[in-house]
Amino acid sequence: MEVKVYNQEGAEVGKISLNDNIFGIKPNRDVVHQYIVNYLANQRQGTSSAKGRAEVSGGGAKPWRQKGTGRARAGTIRSPLWRGGGIIFGPQPRSYYKTFPKKMKRLAMLSVLSDKAQNEKLIIIDNLNIPEIKTKKVFTILDKLGISSKKCLILDEGMNKNLVLSVRNIPHVEYSRAPLANAYDIVNADTLIVTKAGLEKVEEVFAP
């Protein structure tokens, strides 16, 4: 599969062949769905907590005697039936972490990359070397590529500090190092922008 290569001015500067083993497979939507469910579960902190009747303060003395008052029996003011009492079956700290097979994770990644390429939602750009931290510069590049209003994920080879700091104020644009990208971020983006150096790294990491 061949795709066009653009420069920062939005002009076509050539073409490049994509690895069919990475960008040309039939996407497995079931595996992608399982990966996303697992990924989102692993992002949960699991720190929500509520106190039961044994944990709330007070309630050491019996509110009133057992018989003769005409009221219902009560042994503690911290009963879940009372205002300020414990919570019945309240949430407790827990881990939502689940493992996911490496082969399925890799298949999910290849599936989303192939989906972007086959649906023309993949843009290859020769480089994104920005001499200074400038959000307006990144927005201008996106505007010239015709995707300034779309959710974008930018993949580059290494840690492009100026680019990272330039995109952080654009709500719909995310940046990631190519080897560390995950299928969820790619699915969540309308358009995937990959530099030529980033593409080489993707093919190096994910090629069979």
Describe this structure in words.
This protein has 208 residues and is of the alpha/beta class. It has two domains: 2-44 and 100-206, Ribosomal Protein L4, Chain: A (3-Layer(aba) Sandwich); 47-95, no CATH class. Helices cover 34% and strands 14% of the residues. It is built from seven helices and six strands; from the N terminus they run ββαααβαβαβαβα. It has helices at residues 20-23, 29-43, 102-118, 135-144, 161-167, 183-188, 196-206; strands spanning 2-6, 12-17, 122-125, 152-156, 173-177, 191-195. Strand 1 and strand 2 (12-17) form a beta hairpin. Helix 4 (135-144) packs across helix 5. The longest helix is centred in the middle third of the chain and has 17 residues, at 102-118. The radius of gyration is 27 Å and the shape is elongated. The mean pLDDT is 92.
Uncertain spans, ≥5 residues at pLDDT below 50? none
Following the backbone from N to C, one meets helices and strands in this order, namely EEHHHEHEHEHEH
CATH topology of the largest domain: Ribosomal Protein L4, Chain: A
> What is the CATH architecture term of the largest domain?
3-Layer(aba) Sandwich
Query: How many alpha or pi helices?
Result: 7
E-strand count: 6
Instruction: For the record, give the distance between the C-alpha atoms at the N and C termini, rounded to a whole number.
Output: 17 Å
Considering the protein shown, what is the CATH homologous superfamily of the largest domain?
Answer: Ribosomal protein L4/L1
* Tertiary shape: elongated
**What is the CATH first-level class name of the largest domain?**
Alpha Beta
In order across it, which strands form the biggest sheet? 2-1-3-6-4-5
Mean pLDDT: 92
